[in-house]
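N-acetyltransferase domain-containing protein
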Amino acid sequence: MMEFQRERLILRPWNEMDAENLYSYAKDPAVGPIAGWPVHASVQNSREIIKEVLSAPETYAVCLKEDHKAIGSIGLIPPMQSHTTAADNEIEIGYWIGVPFWGNGYIPEAVREMQRHAFEDLNYKAMWCGYYDGNEKSKRCQEKCGFTYHHTEENKACALMGDVRTEHFTYLTKKEWENNKMMDKKTAVLYVHGKGGNAKEAEHYKSLFPKYDVYGLDYQTFTPWETNEEIKVEVNALKEKYESIILVANSIGAFFSMNAEIDAEISRAYFISPIVNMEKLISDIMQWANVTEEELQIKKNITTAFGETLSWEYLTYVRNNPICWNVKTDILYGSTDNLTSIDTVTEFARDHKATLTVMEGGEHWFHTDEQMEFLDKWIKG
């Protein structure tokens, strides 16, 4: 089993040598009964519990770094053993700590590491936690760690204590955990508009990211080799002030952003109707305008009847500078998008491990009340 280190703690597997330490804290009636288990009767009793209970997978002794001695316990409880109705892709967490260590924030520190382990290493989609009526310390710990109240179960048998109790359950999704993790840092949101848009559109996102500073970029150039430099300058300026940057990009703004080689500086991206394959889009426009590649190469620039200017220099640049994007990305796509096909955006999402959400009836330009309501709910998760 693994071992984890935090700022002040080590979380490691239990072993029989921990029996004396376990007994010294577990014999206290203030610890076990309120968590649903009886006080330990002896060191031998604690040793047996280490063998029979605490040796379970994903169960760890909570230890201070300075001496590695167990002062508490924390563990992940699989769905089949959960106190509530956890789904197969969900996990429950349980914990306790000795009275001398109350009030130091050790258990919240341990819980946060187990959340990271459950969501990142084990890929669970949600985590449950619970506390019996009256256990205010555990309730506060769960609130500190991002759990929110889910439901209460009354007249619930507590088998180890031989009584009936009221148990309250809290819940945390992986997406909520990711959002909470970003909130722990000083975070900026950068909005990059699409064609015909402007930085003022960023105002809409301030209510969607109320805890972050939201900025809009009014780029002044319209070719990827120029606009990418404007985006780089803005991102580098934000990095001077912020630890984390979230990118929200619309349409061609997403293409410009991916072309700017900023993915190492972006913690997360939200793309709305993104242009994800510019070469294909240019080829489609050439076909719609009945322009051949040979003709474009000779004339260099051709203005189409529907107002778009085709450029041989632009097409050549796109071919010579393929997109490389390694950022956790969520994509919103309208099913009637007339610039990017569902096959193209699906392929991009698959290749870049992005999450794709499709609004039936949605357009390339999200602007109606219904579309904006859908967009808002999508970002809020």
